[in-house]
Amino acid sequence: MNLLRLLLLSLTLPVFAQDGFTPLFNGKDLTGWDGEPGLWKVEDGVLVGTSEPGKPKTNSFLIWTGQAKDFELRATVKVVGDNNSGVQYRSRRLPAITPWTILGYQCDVHPTEVHTAMTYEERGRGIFGYNGMDVVMDPTGQRWQVGERPRVQADISQWNEFTVIARGNRLEHKVNGQTTSVFVDHDEKGRALDGLIAIQLHAGNPHKTYVKQVLLKVLEDGPILPFDQAALPSGAKKIDRPKVVSAQGKNPAPKKQ
Q: What is the value of pTM for the model shown?
């Protein structure tokens, strides 16, 4: 291959490929993904999930058929309608509920500011830290707030890039490159160090979830950070599990007639 041809080829390669990222969505169809029939499709190169009252009956997930341990994940997502979505990772299926029900860590794609890209566990230990909170969970399951940062604002009805960086037992979430929450999980019984990646389609208020890009970069295994209360920042404080401010969108689900 001559030098000119090599240069032209390098200019046509996607930037993410050059940066070590691999696309998990091919932009054409659902190859490599497993979702509840009738809920997901591809339109104009974009994954589209449609939620209507009663369908799905419970939160349903479009699940990537691979596994991931330590990685950086970037997903470009928007939600149109009064509800939310989420980027699920290091998760596992709960087939006793449905084949597309998931338990595990989630980076929330939520219109309510405190919930935007918070650290959370679906069907597990709940919220660890709101948008703007850095939290450590000790081996007993006690939460410690160890830092605070300005909340990142995002209009989720528009395209935003949600990033998860998972290395060892340290998890970091970002929106458009800005960190929203860092969580260090010392709860050996509750935590997961690998698992599934998925996109949430929330039950309840009607909406559509759009995903135009999912990129994965595998990282070298990170260290499992040990818990040392004496090493916590001087302002660290014990906190209760943060409460859910809004379970769906900014408004409650309509009451069943």
A: 0.91
